């Protein structure tokens, strides 16, 4: 029985993975980089500079650090333009219902997203008020390091082994599994999420009353 929930954002709560992908694709085209079929899967959950390395591939060495920072911020400007059109209808299936259920049962909720745009996305989706704490990705080593999930648990003041965390990316599941006994729920296609303790196709398949002890008795 668990006492708190920790969520990844892109690909778990919000249908933004496709927007990240679109922005990277635009940059890749401008750089005339080839676009492999599995690029989307490989980019999931990676922080911005690590994602850029995936896009640059073997041409990475041809760019200076300064040029890479400029390329990453160019991608970010494309992404920020895309997220301006987000609204509550871009919540993924079951996300709004699960957050509302947890909130009603007074089970604390944290965010553990690698995205520096997370606050803007939460606001656009109108779900900011559900979160007791938002772990700061700038203060944590990137996933698959467990840091951001541990920071989220600490922010909630709940032991990691009493937290369930939700992830759509292999790197994120690895981060949860390294977080001192935290339980991982993989959201999405089984293949990339095999290391999770539980796997659901979407959050609408997750049955919260089987996992959480309500703070209200
Ligand atoms: P930003 P998550 C991750 O968010 C995304 O999955 C990943 O595609 C993105 O590159 C990363 O955030 C950084 O985002 O460029 O906005 O800082 O899945 O950890 O919620
Ligand atoms: Mg994600």
Automatic annotation (TrEMBL):
Molecular function GO labels: beta-phosphoglucomutase activity
InterPro entries to which the protein is assigned, alphabetical: B-phosphoglucomutase_hydrolase (IPR010976), Beta-PGM (IPR010972), HAD-like_sf (IPR036412), HAD-SF_hydro_IA (IPR006439), HAD_sf (IPR023214), PGP-like_dom2 (IPR023198)
Keywords: Isomerase
Enzyme Commission number, as recorded: 5.4.2.6
Top-level taxon of the source organism: Bacteria
Assigned protein family: Belongs to the HAD-like hydrolase superfamily. CbbY/CbbZ/Gph/YieH family.
Protein's recorded name: Beta-phosphoglucomutase
Organism whose genome encodes this protein: Microbulbifer variabilis
